[in-house]
Amino acid sequence: MKRSYPPGPKVASLWIGVVLALIPFGLALTSAKVKSATFDEDAYIGKGTAIWLEGNYWLRTAHPALAPMLGTSLLLTEPELSAPTDQPCWPDGTARSCGRELLFYRSDTRRVLFLVRLPITYLMVTLVALVYRWAAELYGRRAALLPAMLCALDPNLLAHGRLLTLDLVATFFVFLSCWTFYRFWARPGWGRLAAVGLALGAAGSARFTTGFLVPLFLVLGLARTWHLCRAELLFVSNALPRWRAVVVALVALVMVGGIAVLVIWIVHGADFGPVPRWGGIRLPAPAYFNELAALLEYRDKPQDAFLLGYHYKGGWWLYFIVAFFVKTPLPTILMVGFALVCLVQQRGGGFGEAVLLTVAGSYFGLSLLSPFNIGYRHLLPMLPLLFVFAGRAVRVGELGPHLRLRPVPAALLVWLTLSNLAIYPHYLAYFNEPVGPRNGYRVLVDSNLDWGQDLPALEQYVRENDIPLLYLSWFGESRPWQY
Fold first, then answer.
1. Rounded CA separation 100/106 (Å)
2. What string of DSSP letters covers 86-148?
């Protein structure tokens, strides 16, 4: 049954939602202004600009095109900006080379960085709103405030919610896919089926690894149908025998997959042609599959990694376990842990929680097998799902008076707020209290700490201390002479 709320709480909820949206927007936007280009942003600027200005999908990044296209969409407002078609990087070259030329030599670097980061910040704000919405559907509006605040103040989401990279974009569309999937199975309909397909297609256009959602959605959808022993889906309104219900559910899932494939095809040029890296085989959206082939080739080459003082190549199952527990805010870990205790005490939850925990848990498990140990940022897609689930811990009646735990969520949010303000604006370097930013380099490096983002801070330090000569070694793409 749909909940009904009096007008007062609705108005209050609207204003609360506006405030919650302004928090990450302000934090992300102001902190991004004092950060130089991170290691991957020039590549996505190069690819996105090539697509918008010249229709060129073939600059190589080993990733799909949606994130570069979203990030560079506002560059269309710059009439003097032009793609570097006269450079050697242009014909069948790397996006990074073209992006360097465009970002550092043919434009106002700081203005371009602001414009390409702004759409990602909008997605971050929308993500907070969606976390609040799903949590309110599961636990009520009052309980939904906790998940929304966990999302709005999370240093890791803020770190990447202000950069033109794949991470926040993939996180957003994974979450959107899960939410629309839950809503479809809660109350099936044609519009909701289309929404799942569109979101899933966008996720697949943001990052190849989001393909893990396909088998999970198949299993979850069929399991729910089998459990309910009915299929009130689309054109079927009456209860069916179990096997027929499963067939109807399978048809619905195939339709979702078809819409998702169509979205990927449209995003990547809606063409049909040869895939050079796969021997010229002709496929729809050949640029998409050419990037997939490039990623698979990259995957086969062991990458450098660092953990707890050890340098190694390839993947180590311990990497993301350590990364999760040293970079996830402790208030978040405690609230998610308490929500799990509540779930066990209540002996199970509903379908929404099954989606949240199945997707988050599966994603974390798959991450342990990854050969790319290059950053906590690869765990971001599971965070909003955990934030929503944390709402269970403060659902009305969940915290019994005898436990005297009602002030705990508020205290944890105060803790999270203070941690956020303490690290502002250096969110990429965030480590929780047992490690701290000063000792982070002993545990993790790369995008966990330094991604080439702090040349403006170095500029300020050199100026304030009147340093005449500087020997510089840094991990980044920005040009030091610009600062």
1. 9
2. TSTTTTT-BHHHHHHIIIIISS-HHHHHHHHHHHHHHHHHHHHHHHHHHHHHHH-HHHHHHHH
C-beta separation of 68 from 164 below 8 A: yes
Q: How confident is the model at residue 7 (pLDDT cuts 50, 70, 90)?
A: very low
- If you average pLDDT over residues 10-22, what whole number do you get? 71
DSSP 14-58: HHHHHHHHHHHHHHHHHHHTT----TTHHHHHHHHHHHHHH----
Give bridge partners of residue 283 from the DSSP assignment: 273
Which long-range contacts does 254-260 make (Cβ < 8 Å, 24+ apart)?
255/193, 255/197, 256/193, 256/196, 256/197, 256/200, 256/217, 257/197, 257/200, 257/214, 258/197, 259/193, 259/194, 259/196, 259/197, 259/198, 259/200, 259/201, 260/197, 260/198, 260/200, 260/201, 260/204
Amino acid letter at 381? P
* Listed residue (186, 189, 199, 202) closest to 252, CA to CA: 189
Q: Count other Cβ atoms within 10 Å, centred on residue 376.
A: 27
Please tell me whether the overall predicted TM-score, pTM, comes out greater than 0.85 for this model.
Answer: yes
Question: What's the confidence (pLDDT) of residue 195?
Answer: 97
The pair phi, psi for residue 282, each rounded to 5°, is -90, 130
Q: How confident is the model at residue 402 (pLDDT cuts 50, 70, 90)?
A: very low
Q: Angle at the Cα of 467 (from 462 to 470), degrees rounded to 5? A: 85
249's tokens? 């559910």
Q: Identify the pLDDT of residue 256.
A: 95
Q: CB burial class (10 A; 0-12, 13-18, 19+) of residue 4?
A: exposed
CA distance 151 to 169: 15
Which of 151, 172, 158 is closest to 331 using CA atoms? 151
What distance in Å separates the CA atoms of residue 182 and residue 174, rounded to the nearest whole number?
Answer: 12
Could you report the per-residue pLDDT of 244-256, keeping only the tens digit for each?
Answer: 778 888 999 999 9
Provide the 3-class DSSP secondary structure of residue 207: coil
In sequence order, the 6+-apart residues with CB closer than 8 A to the CB of 66 are: 169, 173, 202, 205, 206, 267
Q: Which two tokens stand for residue 157?
A: 């989401």
For residue range 353-387, list pLDDT tens digits in order: 999 999 999 999 999 999 999 999 999 999 999 99
CA dist list (Å): 73 to 48, 57, 77, 185? 8, 15, 8, 34
Four-residue CA torsion sign, 471, 474, 479, 483: negative
